[in-house]
Amino acid sequence: MGGRPVSERNLDGSSWKLAEPHAHQVQGMVVSGFSHLPISQTLLLRFDWDKTVRGGAWLEALAEIAPVTPADGKQDSSASLGITATGLKKMGLSDEILAGFSQPFREGMFQTDRMRRLNDRVGTQWSECVIDGGPLWSANTPPDNSGEGSGLLASLPRRDSVRVVTELTVHAILIIHCTDAPEATTWAKETAAVLKRCDVNVVRAKETTLGFDDEGMVREHFGFVDGLSQPIPWDEEAVRDAPPAPDPIHGIALGDVVLGHTDGHHETTTGPLVVPGNNALADPDDPSALDLLFNGSYLVVRELRQDVAGFWNDAERIARTMGTNPATGGQFDGNWVGERVIGRSMEGDVLRPDGVLPRKPVSPPNEAHAASSETKPVPDNEFLYWDDDRAGLGCPLGSHIRRGNPRDGLATKPSQTKSLLASSNRHRIIRRARKFGPYIEDRMVDDGVERGLIFAVINADIERQFEFVQQSWMMSPSFHTLFDETDPLLGPKSNFSIGAEPVRRRVTIHNHTKLAGGDYFFLPSLPALEWLSGL
To answer: Is 468 within a domain?
Structure first.
């Protein structure tokens, strides 16, 4: 899902491309949502070899059957690869090199403090936003009692630390993107067979899809058009055909997506320096040294299950308690409530006090599509909140899209809008989510079928980007001017305020999206993958 709506009208799913040599080094999924490859297989891998096996051998085998795709062109099929910290450790990466990776990545998603800030754990219990019994899979990162400081206290374990061990250990994730399901299934089986000979086993697999509707727009299982808003990375040297300045609404620094480039705080992340054939830190003055993080990124993956019938029955329940809709004279309905939870109409148009934001015409990608449905207007994503919806009378202040990307909406006076928009953009993430499971036939009837989302996020700073959004915006009970409320789509049972005059309406909404597994992965550059294959 790129910088504009992921649809068949925007064939490459992106609005930015990298210049060389970066395009040939960065993994393709960083810059493209592969909208031309709507079917994929998501394979979670576990390394089961013993200590006598060379840790990089499996990468050499993978390169023969499913080579990782660079970002330098459109492909007929594609493969993307992420590795967990425990996976790198299992491959034999030395501790001194691994110490050069970010702390959230090294600790993993289920470290004590991270579970709290993500609202996965409440006290000694799993949050209601997690499936019964706890998550099924993770990297199973062992607790690190070494501390970040020095002295005796730094080496002691925390008294309130929680050791999480999931049923499945995942060392890597391989996502293969294809044009159709048979091709993806065949490729996945062939790849799994090759990896098994290297003692790498597929421990969990999901067929995932974008899921285009008849209008060529992506829809998630609750029925809403998805993938409508993405940041647009900018770097005048590394982004091909970059405009003179970042996009005024969606522009972010390339370093917030790709490691080794300048980020939104005007800083550049540097990683551990290594040389071919040497599993130790290199001399900084060695001209052959490789920055292992350069042109890589971090991938956040969370497997989320969606209770579609639960969501819509809850929406209908809420609608029945709200009485008469003054705008229509009739009763409120479930669609009206569900749209306020998201902040957009079912068709993807952002809600405004006087209805929805008018659609924006788009140019066809080429002459062949000029007369097709791809010329239809799409939901306008070039909006801000301050000027025409600062009170949330259209798009509620605590709606899912407003919490996920507040834009200029957190300002309390006009002079703050520009700086708060810039601040908001420094926390932006690139979404690469795909669905698993069939669409439900009747959204009001639970058919017992497992369905949901492989929620995948690309960012360079897990703590400042993904974790901040989750903790400070999505799960914060005091977001904006609200109190005792969390995100109505992802959060636990909570109050939810819907803007209205003279006073806002406040309803209670339940959780219908639950975490089934997840962790943090490193997306190595192609040069880094080549070095890792030599371990």
So the answer is: yes
